[in-house]
Amino acid sequence: MKYDPLTRILHLCVALGVSLQMITSLVMIYPKPGRLPNQWYEVHEGLGIGLLGIVSVHWLWALGRSLARGEAMMLFPWFSKARRADLGRDVGETARQALRGRLPAGDGPRPLPAAVQGAGLLLALGMAATGTALAIGMAPDGGLSPALRAVKEVHEAMAPVMWTYLIVHPLLGILHQFAGHGTLNKMFTLR
Question: Which residues, in sequence order, are bridge partners of residue 35?
Fold first, then answer.
C-alpha cells in the first residue's frame, strides 16, 4: 500500500506525540488538592492538547482518503456483518500464514491492518479527548467534579491499552519489514 506525504507526516507526528505522552506520564506528578504538578505534567498537558488537534486532522484525512477509495468502513468493521466476516477471514489467513512462519503481504488494503489502524486512531483520539477535557475542566487546585473524575478513570483505563498498542504496532511493522514487505520504507520514506 502506498502512503501519501501528508499521511506519513501525520503518522509520524501521532507516533512521536503518543510516545512522548506515554513517557511523560511515567514521570509527571498529577495535580491534586494540596499537591502541585511538576513540569512534566505541564508538558504532558500541553502536548496532549496539541495531539488532539493532530489526531483529529489525521482522522479527517484518513476518512476522506478511505471514502474516496471506497474503503472507509474497513477502519470500523464492527457494525457490519459482511465486514466482520471479511475481518474474520483475514484473521484466519493471517493465522495460517503465521503458522507457516510467514506474514501476509499485499499492496491492497486488508481488513485486519485497517481494523488495527482504526482501533489505534480511536484509542489515540479517546486519550487525547479525555485528557483535554481534564486539562480544561480541572479546578486550579487540581480538584475534579464527579463527571471529570469519571473522565479521568476512562483516560487512565485506556493507558495500558495504549502501551500495548505502542509496543505491538511498531514491532509488527518491523516484522513485516524484515519479511520483505517494505512496510517501514512505505511509511517513512517521504519521496
Answer: 32
Backbone angles phi, psi at 125, to 5 degrees: -65, -45
The CA-atom distances, in angstroms, between 144 and each of 24, 35, 158 are 21, 13, 19
Domain span including residue 18 = 5-102+110-188
Q: DSSP alpha helices (H): ranges in the chain?
A: 5-27, 39-69, 81-99, 111-137, 146-176, 183-188
DSSP, residue by residue, 130-183:
HHHHHHHHS-TTS---HHHHHHHHHHHHHHHHHHHHHHHHHHHHHHHIIIII-H
Q: What is the Cα 17 distance to its own chain's centre?
A: 10
3-class DSSP assignment, residue 103 = coil
* Encoded amino acid at 100, one letter: R
Q: For residue 140, give the CATH number of its domain.
A: 1.20.950
- The answer to whether 35 and 76 are in contact (CB under 8 A) is no
Q: What is the total count of domains within the chain?
A: 1
Among 80, 141, 81, 77, residue whose Cα is nearest residue 114 = 77
Residue-by-residue pLDDT tens, the chain, 191 positions: 567 888 889 989 999 999 999 999 999 998 888 888 999 999 999 999 999 999 999 988 888 877 776 666 677 888 889 889 999 999 999 899 888 888 887 666 788 888 888 899 999 999 999 999 999 999 988 899 999 999 999 999 999 999 999 999 999 888 888 877 777 777 777 66
